Amino acid sequence: MLKCEVISIGTELLMGQIVNTDAQYISSRLPECGVGVFYHSVIGDNPGRIKEALKIGFERCDVVITTGGLGPTQDDLTKEIVADFLGLKLVLDDRSSERIRKYFEDRGRVLVESNLRQAYFPEGSIIVENDMGTAPGCIVEKDDKVIVMLPGPPKELIPMFDKVMKYFKEKQLGRLFSKYIRIVGMGESMVEQKIYDIVSSQTNPTIATYAKDGIVTIRVTASNEGGSNPEVLVNDMVNKICEILGDNVYTTENDELEYVVFKLLKERNLKIATAESCSGGVLAQLLTSIPGSSHVFHSGFVTYSEESKIRALGVERSTIETYSAVSSQTAREMADGACRKTGCDVGVSITGYAGPDGESVGLVYIGVSYGGATEVSEFRFSGNRERIRTMSAVTALDMVRRTILNKS
Amino acid sequence: MLKCEVISIGTELLMGQIVNTDAQYISSRLPECGVGVFYHSVIGDNPGRIKEALKIGFERCDVVITTGGLGPTQDDLTKEIVADFLGLKLVLDDRSSERIRKYFEDRGRVLVESNLRQAYFPEGSIIVENDMGTAPGCIVEKDDKVIVMLPGPPKELIPMFDKVMKYFKEKQLGRLFSKYIRIVGMGESMVEQKIYDIVSSQTNPTIATYAKDGIVTIRVTASNEGGSNPEVLVNDMVNKICEILGDNVYTTENDELEYVVFKLLKERNLKIATAESCSGGVLAQLLTSIPGSSHVFHSGFVTYSEESKIRALGVERSTIETYSAVSSQTAREMADGACRKTGCDVGVSITGYAGPDGESVGLVYIGVSYGGATEVSEFRFSGNRERIRTMSAVTALDMVRRTILNKS
Question: What is the DSSP string of B355-373?
Answer without folding.
Answer: -SSSTTTTEEEEEEEETTE
